[in-house]
Amino acid sequence: MITVAFVAVLAALVLGWPATAGATDFSLSGFGTLGFAKSDKSYRYQRFVDDNGTFRRDSVAGVQLDAVFSPSVGATVQALASPSSNHDDQFDGTIAWAFVSWRPTNDWLVRVGKQRIPLYLYSQTYNVGTTYEFARLPMEMYSISPSNDFVGLSASKTWEMNRGELTLDGYWGTSDLDVRFWIRDGMPPNQGPTAIFRQLGVEGGGLVLTHKSAETTYKVGYSKVTVNEQNAASSYPATYPYVSIAPGVGYYQVNSMLPGPGIPTIDRYSYRTLTLGTDLQLGSGYRVIAEIARSLVTDTDLSTQSTRGYAAVLRKMDRWTPYLAYAYLKSSSGPLTLHERVNANRVPASVSGAAQINASQRAGADSILVYDQSSWSIGTSYALSPTSKIKAEWMRVRIGQVSSLVDAPPGSNIRNQSINVISLSYSLVF
Fold first, then answer.
1. Are 150 and 123 in contact (CB under 8 A)?
2. Whether the Cβ atoms of residue 176 and residue 200 lie closer than 8 Å to each other
3. Structure confidence at residue 125 (pLDDT)
4. CB within 8 Å of 24: residues ≥ 6 apart
5. Whole-angstrom distance, CA of residue 224 vs CA of residue 228
């Protein structure tokens, strides 16, 4: 997919250069954040954060090359260094953006290549810490997808209005995702707690309508994509069937090694998301930012169907911008109920292979990504200059029934617990 994006950019270079020889304008910019986070728990939260502290969660660096071939044609390539999407102990260098842009008129913009899905208020600047005041954008909201990039086509139409402008964005493309699962207990061939990564392919698109003025931003978006396992056919479970051994005794068939009727599978499922966002300037330096999303998945019981969002109040005071934020994320009752039933299911030791069956139940529960959590955050940013900021934040996370953002220790269930996280960061652009 990245190759396709590079071809698009190189095509623009080849086709655009002769017509604009000597007139092409190149610009190079960069950005970075050095971020530290530490919690009061020995287990990890958000892949990396525990009581030892980590620079992995929030540290990122990138460079961007923009080429303007003519008033209507340009290209952008952005390279990014960030935590690996498929390994917990590595940083990866990736091409985040690689697209050609064409502006036939002032109110139309067309892009082809690898680009960012306009899913959130801060979709385009997610990795650029100087563009927002939060120490970290709320994970409860900004985790709808492990990646917000796609390779494809997008088009934007803008209408000038009496107050501000109205923009309609449409996009369609494909994306490859690495989805992380934390398996708590040892089970052959994995002998201990471990993270596993599954590769998913996504295809689809959506529409986003945004109204912007000097004081307000309103955004509503709808997307629909189909998701499938990479390099596999009919391999995504539709549900886990229950196998009865005796009255009141049984297990969920969570893998093909367990006897049972077989796990019903689907080759792909549909994922629909509705998002709403607003950014309001209230005067006297006060500002309110809020986003909410509802995801719908009807083809499988092992879905990430959920409701999520956050609301924040900020006040700018010279170089300081303190804020208070509340965020939440809760899976729908179907996935939560299935997870709880599989996780709690046990067969007595008298049953042949009881230890293996019971271990499989917990591993099966871990393969269902579910969430029931909320958080309060108090923090501030301080603008050292127009191009750099330092930030500090204290966040208190409350875990309800379960959260797949937590790496639970072997043999444990992390529920009805609070996690305190301190974050410090320095961000700059150049």
1. no
2. yes
3. 96
4. 16, 17, 67, 68, 69
5. 14
Across-strand partners of 288? Answer: 280, 313
CA dist 370 and 343 (Å) reads 12
Structure tokens at 224: 């629909």
pLDDT band at 186 (very low <50, low <70, confident <90, very high): low
Cβ 81 vs Cβ 105: under 8 Å? no
pLDDT band at 340 (very low <50, low <70, confident <90, very high): very high
Token digits for 30? 């960069």
**CA 254 from chain center: how many Å?**
26
Is 31 within 8 Å of 130 (Cβ atoms)? Answer: yes
Which pair of structure tokens corresponds to residue 205? 């698109």
Structure tokens at 230: 């990479």
Cis before 18? omega within 30: no
pTM above 0.70, yes or no: yes
Structure tokens at 298: 């009807």
Identify the residue with better confidence: 7 or 171: 171
With bands split at pLDDT 50, 70 and 90, how would you rate the model's confidence at 411?
confident
Q: Per CATH, which fold does 2-429 belong to?
A: Porin (2.40.160)
Question: How far, in Å, CA of 58 to CA of 385, rounded?
Answer: 21
Burial code (b: 16+ CB inside 10 Å, e: under 16) for 412-423 equals ebbeeeebebbb
Strands, E assignment, 117-189: 149-160, 165-183
Residues in CB range of 338: below 8 A, 6 or more apart: 239, 240, 301, 302, 368
By DSSP bridging, strand 194-212 and strand 269-283 are unpaired
Rounded distance between C-alpha atoms, residue 284 and residue 293, angstroms: 29
pLDDT, tens only, 222-234: 999 999 988 765 5
Q: What is the mean pLDDT of the chain?
A: 93
pLDDT at position 189 is 55
- Determine the straight-line distance between the first and last CA of the chain, rounded to whole angstroms: 29
